[in-house]
Every structure is written in C-alpha cells, then in structure tokens.
Amino acid sequence: MPSRCPLLCRVFALLVLALSLPALHAASAGEEPALLLVTHARFFTMAPGQQQSFLGYMLVSRDGTIAALAAGDPPAAVHAASTFDAHGHWIMPGFISAHSHLWQAAYRGLAANKTLPGWIADLYGARATKAAPEDYYWFALDGALDHLQHGITAAYDFAYGGTSWDNPAMKPGAIDFDTEQYRAELASGIRFVHGYQVEKVPPGTPAETTLAVARPRLRAFLDYTAAHPSPRALSTMLNGSTAFNETPQQAVMEAALMREFHLGNQSHYLEPPDTIAAEQAKFPWFVDGGLMQSTLIFGHFIHTTDAILEQTAKAGAGMSWNPLSNGRLASGTADIPKYLKYGIRVGMGVDGEASADLADPFENLRTGLYAIRDKYQSATAMSPYQVLSLHTMGSADVLGVKSRLGSLEPGKYADFLVIDPTDFGPVFDPYASLVLIGSQRELERVYVGGQLMVDHGHLLHADADEVERQVDHRVQSEVKTEVPAIEPAGVK
C-alpha cells in the first residue's frame, strides 16, 4: 500500500484542512475540548471523488459531528476529551442498511427451504401476529444491537404494524407496536429511519375512508416522536403496501399522507418470481396514485421492465438492494448495473434477519458483488469500490440523509468503523480487501456520533445477555396476548 498520497489526495487534504480551521481554532482556544481525537489512522472516507485513502487524523465535536479530517498529524494545540491512536488501522464510514426489519432478529433461520410466499405464511401467519407490542420492543432492540455489532450504524427499520385498521379488537392498542419499536431504536444507540406501517385500504373502500382512520393514528405517532427527539432518529417514512393490495386506492391514500405529513415511502415491490405479472400490472397504481416521486424507495425491485425503470428514473425514485435476502429466498438478482445506467439511486440493505439471518454487511457486499458478476459473467460488471459505495453513500442517498451520513467529511456525523487489516495479508487493493476478505473478525470498533458503541464485538451500552433472554422467552412462550391472526398489512 503506498505510504504517500498522490497530488490529488494532497490537494483534497489541504481543502479539508482549510474548511476545518475554525473548529481547530475553537478546540485550541481554551473552549470546551472536542469529544474525540483519532490519530494515526488510514481513512477511507467514501466521499465523492476521494477514493484514495490517506494517513491522518479526525477531530469529533461535542455534538458528534466531524470537526476536522486531514492527512498527517493534528496541530499540537488540539485537544479532546478522549484520544484514540489507531496505530495505522483503517477507518471507514459505518455501513447503512437502507432496508431492515429489526424485529425479525427474533426469528432467525425460519422457513429455511421456502420461498417468499411460504416464508411469509410461517413468519406472519404462525408467529408475528401472536406477539404483543411489548414483545416487539425486545425483538427490535435485539435486531438493532445485532446491526451495530456487525458495523451497521444506521438503518431503515420496517417496524411491524400489528394490525389492519378495520379490526376492532386491535384499534385501542395499534399505536403501541410502533411506539414500542421506536423506543427500542432509541435505546439501542443505532441511527435510524423509522418505517411506520400505514393502514391497508380494503377493496371497495374509498381512500378517504381509510384516511379518516390513518390520519389521526399517524399524527399521534409523529407527536410521540416529536416529544422524544434524538439525533439518532433521522426521520419517519411510510411502509407502503400498494403492491400487496387489491385496490389502487392504497396508492392514493399513501400519497395523500406523504403530502400532508411530508414523509417518504418505502414499498416492497417486484420481489418474488411467483407474482411478477400481477405486480408489474400494478405499476400504474404507483404512477396514477401520485407515489412516483424522489422520496419513494422501491424495496427489492428485482423483476422490472424497461418502462418501469424509465419512469422510476424520471421520477427520481430510488431502490434498496438486498442480496442476502434475495439469495436466501430464491427471489432473483436485481440488475443493478442497468439501474445505475438509468440513473436510479441505489442503496443496500441487509433486510430482516428472518430472511437474511445475519445482519452482516460484509456478507451482503460479497453476495451482491458475486451475484452481479454471475449475472453478467464478467468480473468487471461491478467493482469492490462500487459495491462498498452503495452500502454507504448509496444508502444515505436513497434515505435522504447523504448530507449527514454515508461518508467521512467535516460537518457529517462521526459514525465510523475501525478495521484491523492484520489478517488481510498483503494488500494489493484495499477496497478489494475490505469487500472480498472483510468480516466481523476484522471489525475492531464501532462508533456512532464519536461514541464508542462496540469494542471487539462487545456491546458497551447494552446488556446483550438480558436482551437475548427476553427474546428467547417471548418467542418460545405459549402465553401470548389474545391477538387475532389477521393477514399482515403488506409488510414483508
């Protein structure tokens, strides 16, 4: 590995240092010290145009954002409450999962030999609908902590909604499912987008009828989140159900909620090979209902057509690619190079741990890269750097948070990983080493906002044993709240 940056790298470092001078001056002028100073690290920033790594330092402000990041040693006058000497180890942004179901960590390994329809029947029909809201607190907490342990510092969480609006037995407690999972997301320390399960419009019912029920329930949840603010809570989006419904009124209702509450929407679409024609036929519902906009994310989005891709790109919508889950459920391979050529924004997700089984972004990277190369029968169809950028900046982009996450740059949150490259052996291409060889074994530390969350696999701010005990007890217990076994409202 070269020990010196080329000219472009030095120019970049000088520009970063110039932007950082006000923060450095404040840190050396007797004011409250910065939160963290990282020295002697090799940085892989994933910032646009900055592919070359460099040896340098990073200063993290008290608010958890990056105050300075530059090559070389920090000025002698710079001080921080804590200093971490990386001893040449590698630092990269935390992975971002653009598509996760945190609560599904309670059901790892389920329906191992079934494709999506049978898997859904086993998970939802036989299990998920029998769990109470307080169970979902522990399920989601377990998943969030597992994400952190594997180096995922931010995730879109498809929360379990628990009901359909027309089930009278569930109306009084329906909001509890989302609030319990939101509490778990906050407690875990992960950064998150909360995916709120929107109501499902029954066939033959006008969108306005469902809106009358959905609007106050959504407002109550948003009021709850406003009363419990946190920099870890990035936003709330709708878990869309248009592709799972039998009426185009679903899209009309979801679009109305998006406009009224200024929310994005992530909708599972075109995932299983079993229903390709039926789901493709519903694409006009997305268009005519008003869902096709830049705040829409298609989850999975495998079995597309050129017409669908063209309109998706024109609308500025994005998609979340979930290679581990797609391979496990035999759903197919999304043609990511083609999507990127169309100009569609692509992020990556580890999906739920009941279908991907491990929230492991390294395995997700490799699975995705190999699937694309197999599909094209070409080793140049996608590079390690390209796939790594999709799981960092790409995911930040589709979630609407690329100004705050996805790369290591001054002003962004200091969410980063420390990688021990010792076991990589000779390094011919550092990005190839990260993607082709990297694993949890090399993951030394996980930071969120400059706060150390995981040290050599050990959670520092959670009782992992108690969480696992709670989850095991609640999954295995035969005593459950009396919840009718209803059809899930369009979530996977």
Automatic annotation (TrEMBL):
The Amidohydrolase-related domain, residue ranges: 90-452
A single GO molecular function term of this UniProt record: hydrolase activity, acting on carbon-nitrogen (but not peptide) bonds
Keywords, in A-Z order: Hydrolase, Signal
InterPro entries the UniProt entry points to: Amidohydro-rel (IPR006680), Metal-dep_hydrolase_composite (IPR011059), Metal_Hydrolase (IPR032466), MTA/SAH_deaminase (IPR050287)
Highest taxon in the source lineage: Bacteria
Pfam families: Amidohydro_1 (PF01979)
Listed Gene3D superfamilies: Metal-dependent hydrolases, Urease, subunit C, domain 1
Keyword tRNA processing: no
N-terminal signal peptide: 1-25
Official protein name in the record: S-adenosylhomocysteine deaminase
Organism annotation: Silvibacterium dinghuense
The organism's taxonomic lineage, starting at the top: Bacteria, Pseudomonadati, Acidobacteriota, Terriglobia, Terriglobales
